[in-house]
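User: D-alanine--D-alanine ligase, Sphaerimonospora thailandensis:
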Amino acid sequence: MSDLGHVLILAGGLSYEREVSIRSGRRVAEALRAAGVDVETRDTDATLVPAVLADPPDAAFVTLHGGAGEDGAIRSVLELLGVPYVGATPDACHVAFDKPTAKAVVGSWGLHTPDSVALPKETFHDLGASAVLARIVDRLGLPLFVKPSRGGSALGASIVRSAEELPAAMVGCFAYGDTALIEKYVQGVEVAVSVVDLGDGPVALPPVEIVPDGGVYDYSARYTAGHTEFFAPARLTEEETEACAAMAVTAHTALGLRDISRTDLIVDVSGRPYFLEVNVAPGMTETSLLPMAAEAAGRDLGILCRGLLEIATQRG
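Assistant: Predicted structure for D-alanine--D-alanine ligase:
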């Protein structure tokens, strides 16, 4: 058995991504047990704090997606309880979880990111949706990509190919958040690059190329086996691969992240990568990208997660 002691995996929560989180937690638990780690999985409900106080874990692995899992709230509670955990600090999560803010930060570090505008729902109500939407199309052109400014799993996200499609896309977006991020859609190869830091600095794992059957990497394409084809490593040139890795490591550093992250990007037809967003709690399901990248790098998922927990306990 591992000398890590008692490890707590947090999975579930009350976000729209609850079911994905449960699957991620189950996969990490299985991988860690196979690596000889004593694991307990808990949901983030009213029983969590009393349970931690009664039997304090030696470390925690957060597999919560969306909401409190990625905005820093649960990590703040873990710090209040004195529990070391894998992943970014609450302050870093606040910045990374808000997509417009994250884009502004990495942009100041010289990374390319699609031209965009972020607007809250109240703006359309106060100024008139038609006038605002028309100006967005004039400014950014078509096609566009609309998504909530916070959250993941492509919930509320859609491609807009004509001005007539934009109002419905905004309605769908606002169902999952109060602010919409409207980006100029970049045509190219969709790639995810995971970054891990086991104590020697952040290192990019092989990029994973994403080819959804329907052309859009939506919720169904992400979590339904067979709906998306993945290539790990991605079918990129050596120069493109190096540029993607450098972008992911730079984003990880610029946003003040630690231990683990995943950067989503697009490589356009000229070979230039564009930063889309970063995930501080990457999915760990059977169709998730970080485990694929780890396998492509010849890394066992359980041993990788165990190493991250060891780093966390050293901080604790």
